[in-house]
Design goal:
flat; 119 residues; mainly alpha; 54% helix
Length: 119
């Protein structure tokens, strides 16, 4: 004769999703996001963009000229990322660093790599 003992699982509040606990990365990201949200609510004058700056920012869509400028970089980085990803033990991080280094070396002399401003 066997005896089956079922113990209550602590701190799950009856939710099976909490049986494994809360992921630390999720908790850390949520903590920083909450801090940023509270900062923007309680101190609207610190950081962020004002209404005038938002109007000057414009659209987030890429123009045809920007797409033409970015397509070769995307193609080169995709090919390099594919071949790096095929290698055992090499992941997306290594592929990203290799693509960054390749594009930095291929950057034209007209544009200084450090001075290219993000849109």
């Amino acid at each position: 004769m066997s005896l089956l003992v079922v113990l209550p699982v602590p701190f799950t509040f009856g939710k099976m999703d909490l049986i494994d606990g809360i992921d630390f990365l999720l908790l850390a990201m949520a903590t920083f996001a909450l801090a940023e949200a509270l900062m923007s609510v309680f101190r609207p004058d610190k950081g962020g963009l004002s209404g005038d700056q938002l109007g000057q920012m414009g659209s987030l869509k890429l123009s045809k000229e920007e797409v033409k400028e970015v397509v070769p970089t995307v193609a080169r980085s995709s090919i390099l990322g594919f071949f790096t990803g095929v290698l055992p033990g090499a992941g997306a991080t290594i592929a990203s660093f290799l693509a960054y280094g390749m594009e930095r070396n291929l950057a034209s002399a007209k544009k200084s790599w450090a001075l290219v401003k993000a849109v």
